[in-house]
Amino acid sequence: MARVFLLLAALSGFTGVALGAFAAHGLRSRLPEGMLSVFQTGVQYQLWHTAALIGVGLLLLRQPDSPLFKASGGLFVLGILLFSGSLYLMALAGWRVGMVTPMGGLCFLLGWVCFGVAALTVK
After folding, report:
1. Angle 73-109-48 (CA atoms, 0-180°, nearest 5)?
2. Side-chain half-sphere of 104: how many Cα atoms within 13 Å?
3. Which DSSP string do the residues of the chain spell out, in sequence order?
4. Which of 77, 84, 75 is CA-nearest to residue 106?
């Protein structure tokens, strides 16, 4: 599981940097300032949680049987897809996805709760 999370972090880090560069160089003149800010928020949260996913992967190398670290990593991945992904769709396509963005944010929050509890119980 550690390897999966580390590979997903590499993919997310790559796409996060690529999307950030795309926003800075390709979207600045094409999107209204408000929508550019929405897109950049998606990039920001993606990259923060990519770093968290790296941490989870590294911790799972030392604690491979930790269900809470595994849950934390899964929730971070799901949060990136739902939260950041929905912001990208909103900014680029004007697609309002209802409760998808808040559900992604909830995944992030639950991921941090799992991470914290796992940290308290680690041996």
Report:
1. 65
2. 21
3. -HHHHHHHHHHHHHHHHHHHHHIIIIITTTS-HHHHHHHHHHHHHHHHHHHHHHHHHHHHHH-TT-HHHHHHHHHHHHHIIIIIHHHHHHHHH----TTHHHHHHHHHHHHHHHHHHHHHH--
4. 75
Identity of residue 77? V
Rounded-to-integer distance, Cα 104 and Cα 110, Å: 10
Separation between Cα atoms, residue 97 and residue 14, nearest integer Å: 25
The predicted-structure confidence for 50-86, as pLDDT tens digits, reads as follows: 999 999 999 999 999 999 999 999 999 999 999 999 9
The whole-model pTM stands at 0.95
The CA–CA distances, whole Å, from 115 to 21, 72, 74, 97, 103 equal 30, 5, 11, 28, 18
